[in-house]
Known about the structure:
Chain A is mainly β. Helices cover 0% and strands 48% of the residues of chain A. The model of chain A has no long low-confidence stretch (mean pLDDT 95).
Amino acid sequence: xxxxxxxxxxxxxxxxxRMTLRCTQDMRHNAMYWYRQDLGLGLRLIHYSNxxxxxxxxxxxxxxxxxxxxxxxxxxxxxxxxxxxxxxxFCASSDSMGTDTQYFGPGTRLTVL
Amino acid sequence: xxxxxxxPGPFNVPEGATVAxxxxxxxxxxxxxxxxxxxxxxxxxxxxxxxxxxNEDGRFTAQLNRASQYISLLIRDSKLSDSATYLCVVSQAAxxxxxxxxxxxxxxxxxxx
Lengths: 113, 113
């Protein structure tokens, strides 16, 4: 692994199903982030983690949960998907929270039907 | 009103032109500022950080105006390959000493022959 990876690349999901988007970085960055990007709305922060073991809510956290059990992994879970969660999801990491360059994964395109 | 605002464009310019984008922010306590570039359906990548004294990287110049609460990006001698969406990011202090990054919605640039 070099940098930050996300899985799956894309997914079609039935409403009401549970889904976990995976994100892994190998840069030993302290901070990690989840964004969603919708046409006309730009990137919006869902959840973030300042360091392993801590998480925080971003601008649009409802319907999503995260965990940060270790430095490398930051999964995003949709407990019961709804069509409004159809979006492109980007994971990112940075050395320090908010003040350093963020490195983004390639994104996950999620469609909820 | 969104905390970070950009003119969505598109800015449609010929090769060789000079083009400038502004990004305004509402929180005077904002600390860190960045410009990212995003190509269609790809992840954002850092273009440049914005320092108080301004900074230049080849054809790109970024400036910060704290008094008027905006950052700017100037692109000289535009190339076809500069066609992309340019995202500004402003980080603001949050509880616990973290800085939360907020993205603007992006400005679309189209450089034509």
